[in-house]
Amino acid sequence: MKTACRVLSAVVLMILAFIPNVAGAKDFVVKPPPASLDKFYPPQSKEPKWVQQMHKLSGSFGGVFVNMREGDWENAEKLAGQFVEAYKETSEMVPEWEEYFDLDAAKNFAETVKTRDGEKIGKAAGPVGKTCGKCHGDHEVSVWAKYHWPSFHEVKVIDPMDDKEVGFDKYMGSLSGAFKGVTVNFKEGQNDRAHKAARTFKTKYTELKSTCSKCHTTGDVQRFYVGEPVMAALSGLVDELGKDKPDPGTVWKNVGIVGKEGCKHCHLVHRPASFIKERWEEK
């Protein structure tokens, strides 16, 4: 059993170590996935069949080592056979990715499991794991960006300042402008202008609760970028700037909370996929 555990750990580490080498290469380019993959995701498919296939592969491959660790060789061999079947199925789903699959290596792995020799199984698993890691390193980012993230360029927002519908990009630009209006005017001692910009920014920022709910259909979204800490900081910012002599420490503290907890955290999560899609659309 200890041998099986060591083999499992070694195989997992080897596969994980391989992926960054691919994704971190200097010539790494995020290209759009082939169109043939579209039929395995909504709207062409009711179910995300490609994701389901990945779970089938991962479950059967990883399940072999789970059963090895538990000494259940009968089920280990069964899952190894299922893995070969799923591996072959997957290799035929996207013709452009056929080169990523090594059917002989997959079959050799399944046959080696029958020997019940942990060391041999670990060696046989290596080449198979590398095929998975190579494909993931080259394409996982692009697949996630295309099929798991909506396009922000298609989102429309009702600007609360004039009740007109605008594109999301334009709205975010005006939101950024209002935020800069707060910081620039306050630095220059133009407190009235800073206060006016803060009120505009708060109104526009609050509208994001409605916009975000188009994708975040539960109340969970309010816990994050438009949650209570950010909204409290916005109110505190407006209130402080409305005073005859605003306290700089309070102003900048609230600016920091909004900028970090709201704007920055949202951008870190959403903008990478948005940038990728934007570059694809430019082409």
Please sum up the structure shown.
The chain has helices at residues 2-23, 49-69, 73-91, 103-113, 118-148, 168-187, 191-212, 228-241, 248-282; strands spanning 156-159, 164-167. It has 283 residues and is mainly α. The chain is elongated, with a radius of gyration of 26 Å.
Keywords:
mainly alpha, Four Helix Bundle (Hemerythrin (Met), subunit A), 2 domains, 9 helices, 69% helix
Q: What's the SSE blueprint?
A:
Elements lengths: L1 H22 L25 H21 L3 H19 L11 H11 L4 H31 L7 E4 L4 E4 H20 L3 H22 L15 H14 L6 H35 L1
Helix pairs in contact: 1-2, 1-5, 2-3, 3-4, 4-5, 5-9, 6-7, 7-8, 8-9
Description:
The chain has 283 residues and is mostly helical. It has two domains: 2-148; 152-282, Up-down Bundle (Four Helix Bundle (Hemerythrin (Met), subunit A)), CATH 1.20.120. 69% of the residues lie in helices and 3% in strands. The chain has nine helices and two strands; from the N terminus they run H-H-H-H-H-E-E-H-H-H-H. It has a two-stranded antiparallel sheet. Strand 1 (156-159) and strand 2 form a beta hairpin. Helix 1 (2-23) packs antiparallel against helix 2 (49-69), helix 2 runs antiparallel to helix 3 and helix 7 (191-212) runs antiparallel to helix 8. The chain is elongated. The N and C termini lie far apart (54 Å).
